[in-house]
Amino acid sequence: MSANKLAIVPKQSPIVPPPSKNWFTRARDGALVFHGETFDDHVAAWGDAQNTIDGGLWGQAMVAASLETKYRAHGVEEFAKKVGRSAGWIWDMARAYRVFQFSSQLENVSFTHHVEAAKADSAEEAVEALAKAFEKGWTTKQLQGYVETGIEPELKAKRGAKDSTPPELAKLHDEAVRNELTTKIAGIQEWPDSATDPLLAAVYRRMKALLEWQRDRTVEKDCAAIMEIFTAEEGMELPDCVSLNYIMAWLNLRGRLMKKSEVIARIDVLKRLRMLTDFSRTTSKGPTQRGVVTPVYAPIDDYMAKLEDVAFLPDSTARKSELHADFIARAEKYAPELLPEKEAEAA
Predict the structure, then answer these.
(1) CB 45 within 8 A of CB 23
(2) Which residues of 88-112 are buried (b: 16+ CB within 10 A; e: fewer)?
(3) What is the pLDDT along the chain (347 residues), one digit of tens a residue?
(4) Buried b (16+ CB within 10 A) or exposed e, 3-15
(5) Distance, CA of 106 to CA of 112 (rounded, Å)
(6) Cα(227)–Cα(308) distance, rounded to whole angstroms?
C-alpha cells in the first residue's frame, strides 16, 4: 500500500452489553434468594438490589452477608472501595441481615433501626430492642443509646439528662482502631463453625468475645470490669482488698487488657464515685509507719450491697441497666464534672 493512500478500516459492530442477570428471586415461602457467586457478581448485584427488588437495602444486606462468608475481611475492604461505602457499613449490614434473616423484619421501622438493634449482645436482645423501638417510636439515635446502655430514653429524660453521650460513656478507641477490630472480628466470625475440634471452636468464640469487648470499651465498662473482682465467682474466694498488681493480673487473665496508666485512671474514677476506697493506711501500723506502703483498694460497703442486689435480677439487660443507672447517679452526686451538662453550667 502506498504511503499516500488511506487505509480502509473495516466497520465494527456496536458493542452490545450482555443481558442483565436476575440476581434475586423469591422462594416459595417468599424469602429472598441471592444467586451471586463471584466477587464481581456481588459488586454488580449491589447496585441492582436498590432498583430491582422491594426493600433494596435488605437485598444489599444479603449481598454483604454473602460476601463476608465467601471473601472474609480482605474481600469486604476491597468491595467497600468498589461500591463507594465504608467497610464498617458493609459489616453492619451483614450483621443486621444475619440477626434478622430468621426473625420478623419490621416494615414500620427503618433499616438503620435494624442495624442499630443488631449491635446488641445477642440476637434475642436485638429483637427485643427493635420491638421496643417500634412500640415507643424511638429514633435510631435513641435506639443506639438503649442498646449501648440498657436505659430507655424515657427514663433518661425523667432524670433531666441531655440526649448526648457523656465522656465516660464514649468509646475509648478512635474510629480507625474500632474499624480494624471490627474487621478482625468479622474475619474469625465463621471459625467456630468450621473448627475440627470442639475445643478449637470454644477458643475461637473466646477470641471473638475478647476482641468485641476491646472494641466496645468505655470508661464505665473498664470500671465495671475492675469491680467484678469483688463479685462471687465459682470456686474462688472473694478478696477483701486488692493491690494494683493484683488488679492488672486479674484483668489480664480474663482478657480485659488495659494499659497500666488506664487502670490507674479508672481506680481514680472509682474512688471519686465512692465505689472503691484506698485501704492502704487503714491496714498499716499507723501514721508513724516507716517505709513504702503498697496501695491496696477495697469496695465501699454500699456499692457491695448494690452488686449483691443486682446479682438477683433475672437477665443481663436488667443487670446492665441497673448498674449503669447507679454509675450515672454516682457521677451526678460525686463527680458532676464528668457529665457534659455540668461542664456547661460550670463554664
Answers:
(1) yes
(2) eebbbbbbbbbbbeeeebbeebebb
(3) 444 444 443 444 443 334 457 788 877 777 778 888 899 999 988 888 866 555 578 889 999 999 988 887 778 889 988 988 888 889 889 989 988 887 666 777 888 899 999 988 888 888 889 989 888 888 888 888 888 777 787 665 554 444 445 555 566 667 777 778 888 887 787 788 888 888 998 999 899 889 988 888 888 889 999 998 988 655 567 788 899 999 999 999 999 999 898 899 899 999 999 999 987 655 445 555 555 567 899 999 888 888 888 878 877 778 888 888 899 899 888 888 766 553 334 43
(4) eeeeeeeeeeeee
(5) 11
(6) 12
Q: Which cell numbers in the block locate residue 236?
A: 474462688
pTM: predicted TM-score of the whole model, two decimal places? 0.56
C-beta of residue 186 within 8 angstroms of C-beta of residue 91? yes
Fold of 24-148: Arc Repressor Mutant, subunit A (1.10.10)
